[in-house]
Amino acid sequence: MSGLRELLNRRFRSPHGTVRFHLDAPRGEAAGPRVLVFLDADDRTVGQLDHQVCGVCSAAFVRNIAVASHWQGRGVGREALTLLLDLAPGHRWSTSRQSTEGRGFFAALAEETGVDFVERGGRCPHMSTRA
Fold first, then answer.
1. CA distances from 38 to 27, 35, 53, 92, 101 (A)
2. The CATH number of the domain where 98 resides is what?
3. Taking all residues of the chain, what is their mean pLDDT, rounded to a whole number?
4. Residue limits of the N-acetyltransferase domain (predicted)?
5. What are the Cα distances from residue 12, in Å, to 41, 53, 68?
6. Which is nearest to 49 in space by CA: 8, 21, 12?
7. How many CA atoms does the CB half-sphere of 36 hold within 13 Å?
8. What per-residue confidence (pLDDT) applies to 115?
């Protein structure tokens, strides 16, 4: 993917600190489960976004997004999902069941980006369901 290294070297800076992103993508399973890990300046995990992206169907699925309580509301989840949107332009996005907070988060992100995140939209046939 062109520009993948540059995108993953992107840092998120806030008054609370700096976060960098690390993509854990197992080899051999093109549309398999992937994890975008959020790391603080001390390399501690402060969040993660479990997802799948299928280049064949142009489908993408967010299984879970979790952010440490002291980082919530500071934009790191938004930045992580925006990074994934940049890595998979033009894809149709769906999510697993959304919490009340998640519905608000995805609605705000949809309004900002113009991308709909369909709750329980399902996965394409190329995506494994193992987590």
1. 20, 10, 18, 24, 19
2. 3.40.630.30
3. 85
4. 1-131
5. 11, 23, 15
6. 21
7. 30
8. 94
The verdict on residue 17 lying in a domain is yes
Distances (CA, A) of 95 to 19, 84, 106: 24, 13, 9
* H or E stretch at 109: helix 100-113
Dig out the tokens for 117 from the structure. 């995140």
- Look at residue 108 and tell me if it is in a domain: yes
Confidence of residue 2 (pLDDT cuts 50, 70, 90): very low
Q: Report the relative pairing of strands 34-40 and 92-95 from DSSP bridges.
A: unpaired
Neighbours of 19 (CB within 10 A): 24
Alpha carbon dihedral 77, 83, 88, 93, in 10-degree steps, equals: 20
Domains: count for the chain: 1
pLDDT one-digit tens code per residue, 74-120: 999 999 999 999 888 999 999 998 888 889 999 999 999 999 999 88
